[in-house]
Task: structure prediction
Amino acid sequence: MTFVKHTLRWAWPTLLGPARSVRSRLDCAIHCLQSFPSSCHGYLYNESTKICKPSSGLSPYSSPEPSDGDFYFNDSQSSYPDFRHHTLLNETQSVSAYAGYFTKPLTYTEAQATCQSMHSHLFVAKSVIKYFLFLNITTKEYSDWIGLDDLANEGRFVWADDGQEIDVYMKSYLFVSPQPDGQRNENCVYKTSIHDTVKALTFNDANCSLTFSYVCEVDLSLI
Result:
């Protein structure tokens, strides 16, 4: 297994066990692999103090201290512990997604950047069953960003994965008229909560600087 120095910004190491003093960075890597053979995906190592902190991967929920040192990472799909497979079945269809739900509120741009740092994108719901899968992953209590916006072209709402415009049927299904209304620079779409003034569990456009929970989704073709 190869560990490469990794610049941290949107997601940070999830630590495994207590810190340990070692003789070198190589010893830190060996300690991580031997102590946590199935979950070691990286480690923090401080060259000055020789302190080693094994990691199971990266998560937006973590927040290391600058004194933890540099992070060395084996970047793979299993290196992001918040992600898991989700599946929904009905009488005629099934749909799956490999996704992570994050309840730490961020702006739309921050949420998308966080997803991208984990080789994913904001969740997209191009079909009715995929929309219900999104509802299963999230909670009624929170408003959640979804990967749909008209930032590039006002009034043309496109999905975050490939830039495809939302089709007429899904737009009418997901939004309650007169939404999306584009008022007050409302360019980013979120799922309403049971506490929202707009009908709960529908889509609404809002100012992208608001902060909501979000779901990151990995393209299944990459798994």
